[in-house]
């Protein structure tokens, strides 16, 4: 079974960050507060689905869907 990523979440759905699939991208995401064990919630998507907006650690974080696909969730 393949793990789900943040890119798979539906609007309003919450999940907990488990790990990252891209080591280089994980450094950038860690600096932005996307730490393993942190709860994230998909707040909204752009009309064409990219970029997306997440609620992480009390703030909104916008990112490309390709970046969100590297964040694996439980």
TrEMBL record:
Q: Which UniProt keywords apply?
A: Iron
Ferrous iron transporter FeoA-like domain sequence ranges: 4-74
Instruction: Give yes or no: UniProt keyword NADP.
Output: no
Cross-referenced Pfam families: FeoA
What GO molecular functions are on record for this protein? Answer: transition metal ion binding
Q: What is this protein called?
A: Ferrous iron transport protein A
């Amino acid at each position: 079974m393949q793990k789900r990523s943040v890119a798979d979440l539906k609007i309003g759905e919450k999940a907990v960050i488990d790990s990252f699939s891209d080591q280089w991208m994980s450094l950038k995401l860690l600096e932005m507060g996307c730490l393993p064990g942190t709860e994230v919630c998909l707040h909204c998507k752009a009309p064409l689905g990219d970029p997306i907006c997440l609620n992480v650690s009390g703030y909104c974080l916008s990112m490309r869907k390709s970046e969100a696909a590297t964040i694996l969730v439980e």
